[in-house]
């Protein structure tokens, strides 16, 4: 990837719906160049998709939380596989330091949230968890 690719990705991170003609104008290259670079970045698996970001208050109300997870021994792959199947988990992140994984959780109400915590804590290979409910978000 060169500087133009990096700037193109930065523009898409800001707004993935920016028209190709606008991207070309901002990058000072032709539309064909932008289209070819996008196609190449997608084919190489550098760009794997496009998404929508919502304001925190635009999403349905519910319980949101971060769960820090400590893994026993060499069970990380098995635990990650099990966590991927948990409907309350929105995202998973491996980390360094005290915790091995951080999971972003979402549930419609406290009862659903409690059941999700119970299911997650029963996954073999999870040694310890710490969960923090998100109270407010600021963009």
From TrEMBL:
Keyword vocabulary terms for this entry: DNA-binding, Transcription, Transcription regulation
This protein's record includes keyword DNA-binding: yes
Organism the protein comes from: Pigmentiphaga daeguensis
Domain HTH asnC-type: 1-64
PROSITE patterns linked to this entry: HTH_ASNC_2 (PS50956)
Cited SUPFAM superfamilies: Dimeric alpha+beta barrel, Winged helix' DNA-binding domain
Name of the molecule in the record: Lrp/AsnC family transcriptional regulator
Keyword Transcription regulation set for record: yes
Gene3D superfamilies xref list: 3.30.70.920, Winged helix-like DNA-binding domain superfamily/Winged helix DNA-binding domain (1.10.10.10)
InterPro entries: AsnC-type_HTH_dom (IPR000485), Dimeric_a/b-barrel (IPR011008), Tscrpt_reg_AsnC-like (IPR019888), Tscrpt_reg_AsnC/Lrp_C (IPR019887), WH-like_DNA-bd_sf (IPR036388), WH_DNA-bd_sf (IPR036390)
Domain of life: Bacteria
């Amino acid at each position: 990837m060169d500087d133009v690719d990096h700037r193109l990705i930065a523009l898409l991170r800001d707004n993935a719906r920016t028209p190709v003609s606008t991207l070309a104008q901002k990058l000072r290259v032709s539309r064909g160049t932008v289209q070819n670079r996008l196609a190449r970045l997608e084919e190489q698996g550098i760009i794997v998709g496009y998404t929508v970001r919502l304001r925190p208050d635009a999403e349905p109300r519910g319980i949101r939380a971060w769960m820090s997870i400590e893994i026993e021994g060499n069970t990380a792959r098995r635990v990650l596989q099990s966590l991927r199947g948990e409907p309350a988990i929105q995202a998973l992140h491996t980390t360094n330091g005290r915790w091995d994984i951080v999971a972003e959780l979402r549930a419609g109400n406290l009862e659903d949230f409690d059941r999700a915590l119970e299911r997650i804590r029963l996954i073999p290979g999870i040694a310890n968890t710490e969960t923090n409910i998100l109270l407010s978000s600021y963009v």
